[in-house]
Specification:
Blueprint lengths: L2 E5 L4 H12 L3 E6 L7 H10 L4 E4 L5 H11 L3 E4 L6 H6 L1 H21 L4 E7 L22 H19 L4 E7 L1 E3 L18 H9 L6 E4 L11 E2 L1 E3 H16 L5 E5 L5 E2 H12 L5 E4 L14 H7 L7 H14 L10
Parallel strand pairs: 1-2, 1-4, 2-3, 4-5, 5-6, 6-11, 7-10, 8-13
Antiparallel strand pairs: 9-12
Bound molecules: nicotinamide-adenine-dinucleotide and uridine-5'-diphosphate.
Length: about 350
Amino acid sequence: MAKILLTGATGYIGSHTWVALKAAGHDVVGVDNFSNSAPEVLNRLAALTGSAPTFENADICDAGALKRIFVRHGVDAVVHFAAFKAVGESAAKPLEYYRNNVGGLVAVCQAMQQHGCRHFVFSSSATVYGEPVFLPYTEAHPLSPMNVYGQTKLMGEQVLRDWAASDAAVRVAFLRYFNPVGAHESGQIGEDPRGVPNNLMPFVAQVAVGRRPHLSIFGNDYETPDGTGVRDYIHVMDLAEGHVAAVDALLGDAGTFTVNLGTGSGQSVLDVVKAYERASGRPIAYQFSPRRPGDLPAYWADASLAKQLLHWEARRGLDTICADSWRWQSLNPQGFEATPA
Ligand code: NAD
Ligand code: UDP
């Protein structure tokens, strides 16, 4: 059992990872500033884990706050989720993205260095690969992000590689996520985007529950089996369990490693729509729209390295993903704060 600091702990992936780490017997300290999450998440986590969450409301860019947190809690490892993640917004607000995603990361690393904590799990993304040179993407695929958000993730990787090169005690797990979707099977926590969802699954969920009239499918003329975009959708609890495996590996004798966290197969937008209709028993109205600028036609993971190194693989398929998403959405039609978007 170790003490794990989660930054971005009340966010979508952070909250699910919190549950998984507790279930695996770890102690968790959560940090978040609620810039993209709701305090109500903490009540849900208390109910799900059976104990009051240890939580600090702080900004990871605030070195003084980080220092207080490390002194107070004696942290063994950090899982760093806190970041901004909207691709479109990242082009409009690049400086805010670099400050939070790169500057915030550096602040966390400096606090770790000052307090003798050397185990770091980083939320990277498949977006670091960019235009596919080959598919599926392996971890050795060239890195060439196509947007500011992706650049912040690649820079984050570089910061951590340089830190690890300077100090043999530093160990980093670089986790490159594919498309995290779904919700905890209880339906008590899930993805709750502010405003109009940018991503497919929460948009589909909001159409199913009646918050939005229809889905716009961005492009039906791609060179894919049904013409719509193909992605590797991974259940957020599989992803959360991947983090537990990564933490355990780092605290064991694994050195620094980089792995894709995906399922190893791709699904189209229409596959997702049909699976959601089955799970919810409701029709999902959609219309075809022009391609979204910057979207790739198709990509998915080679997930074999994570299986080899971490003995982890995704277990939940698209039907489970949609059933769990629908449980969350139908129990919480307006999300955590019950405020209409
Ligand atoms: P999220 O927005 O739901 O969670 C991020 C959390 O970090 C939020 O609760 C937000 O309030 C918090 N936060 C942001 N800046 C902060 C700061 N300066 N100080 C304290 N807290 C701060 O996002 P998520 O989907 O859970 O993503 C978590 C991580 O995974 C991010 O780093 C993201 O880039 C990465 N990632 C996400 C996806 C995805 O599709 N969701 C894919 C690949 C990688
Ligand atoms: N997509 C869509 N309509 C939407 C949102 C997304 O058709 O309202 C498509 C998008 O073009 C892509 C897939 O769904 O093919 C996944 O998009 P998402 O934004 O969820 O993830 P990402 O583009 O980051 O892989």
